[in-house]
Amino acid sequence: MAVSSKFLRVFEGETFSSPPIWFMRQAGRYLPEYRKLRAQAGSFLDLCFDPALASEVTLQPVRRFDLDAAILFADILLIPHALGQKLSFVENEGPKLDPPVSLEEVKRFRDRDVLEPLAPVFETVSKTKAALSKDKALIGFAGAPWTVATYMMAGGPMKDPGVLRQRFYEEPEFVTGLIDVLADKTIDYLIAQIDAGADAVQLFDTWAGGLPWPVLDAVSVRPLDRISRAVKKARPDTPVILFPKGVGEKATEYALLQGCDGYGVDYAMDPGWARGNLGERVVVQGGLDPLLVIPGGKPMEEAADVYLKLFHDVPYIFNLGHGFTPQTPPEHVAALVDFVRRNG
Ligand code: CP3
């Protein structure tokens, strides 16, 4: 199949002086057009499950900034929702969900079909794919099992990571049982996104940082190994990008995985270290601290230039080191895109 988008060509080994660009959390509250549509849609979940509106929101930033890739508008917590856990998003408090309480409950998740309740998401993917021009890629995604499990176990954003680590030591069967079932459902979910039209998929492990090695290996590296290998085995031509945030030099453990085609560098990682240790092994993506885009201007451009210079001779995708926050001025995003296009 002819590969045409700049984003996908990077995975074929091409390098660009001006790399392809997309941004984590490129759709969302910092965009006035999102806030307008969100107000019409009702709840955030209503928006995620409305293919016409979700597709429109997916396309908004691509249109406004002429980005090289769209990322499906959905959320990592749609999997627990599809498993039957009550989910809601409370303004200014973040997500709230029912925690599973027993190993028996976790075991019952095995028999639940997540693809049926998530069908509107696949419809969003196919609608968006049909609306995108051929030079733009569509990225599907899921949360990594550990990150999704933290929200499930804490019933929302975890307040104390120590509580969940302690739970892993005290009830390893419960925690690994939950992670295992999430990994299985995530494999099905990502393959279905690819079949609906996603050109690549990314796994977000936002809360991988700060875990001691054997725990990180058990709850993050090995589950991501299993998921990425299964997805590649089923759909060998689709790039898989891993974004385990805050793992420092353990990044190499992920980049070495057979199923890892791309690695999302977070803002805390030394870009020189990333170039030396990951740049020859996988497609490196991202790195720029999203908070620099809030003031914008010279400091943002100088920081962006560090990545452009370091990664000019290896396949690289320009992105952030985590998502945009709602305070980001859209004009600064436009200025950043312009800077990368002119100075790459
Ligand atoms: O543009 C994109 O990146 C695509 C859409 C996307 C969303 N969430 C939309 C969203 C993606 C890829 C995510 C991933 C996600 N969701 C992660 C991993 C990446 C990361 O940011 O660390 C996590 C941890 C979540 C869980 C989640 N979803 C939280 C903690 C919150 C509440 C925080 C907040 O900003 O309110 C959400 C809600 C959410 N997901 C919003 C959006 C646009 C805001 C909801 C709203 O419009 O009110």
What would your notes on this structure say?
The protein is of the alpha/beta class and 344 residues long. The protein has a single domain, classed as TIM Barrel (Alpha-Beta Barrel), CATH 3.20.20. The chain has 15 helices and 9 strands. The chain has helices spanning 6-11, 32-41, 44-48, 51-65, 78-82, 103-109, 119-131, 145-154, 161-170, 172-196, 213-234, 251-255, 271-278, 297-310, 330-343, and strands spanning 69-71, 87-90, 94-97, 137-143, 200-205, 240-244, 262-265, 283-286, 316-317. The strands form 2 sheets. The chain has a 7-stranded parallel sheet. It is globular and about 55 Å long. The chain starts with 5 loop residues before the first helix and ends with a helix. The mean pLDDT is 97. Bound molecules: coproporphyrinogen III (CP3). Coproporphyrinogen III is lined by residues 24-29, 38, 44, 71, 73, 75-77, 89, 94-95, 141, 147, 157, 204, 206, 323.
H/I helix tally: 15
What are the distinct ligands in this entry?
coproporphyrinogen III
The beta-strand count equals: 9
Shape-level CATH architecture: Alpha-Beta Barrel
Q: How many strands, which pairing sense, and closed or not: the largest β-sheet? A: 7 strands, parallel
The fold-level CATH name is TIM Barrel
How many angstroms does the end-to-end distance come to?
28 Å
Instruction: Please report which band the strand proportion falls in: under 5%, 5-15%, 15-25%, 25-35%, 35-45% or over 45%.
Output: 5-15%
Q: Mind telling me the C-alpha Rg?
A: 19 Å
Helix content: 40-55%
Largest sheet, spatial ordering of strands: 1-4-5-6-7-8-9
Count up the domains: 1
Morphology call: globular
Would you tell me the overall average pLDDT? Answer: 97
Function: Catalyzes the decarboxylation of four acetate groups of uroporphyrinogen-III to yield coproporphyrinogen-III.
Enzyme class: lyase
GO molecular function, one term: uroporphyrinogen decarboxylase activity
InterPro entries: UROD/MetE-like_sf, Uroporphyrinogen_deCO2ase_HemE, Uroporphyrinogen_deCOase
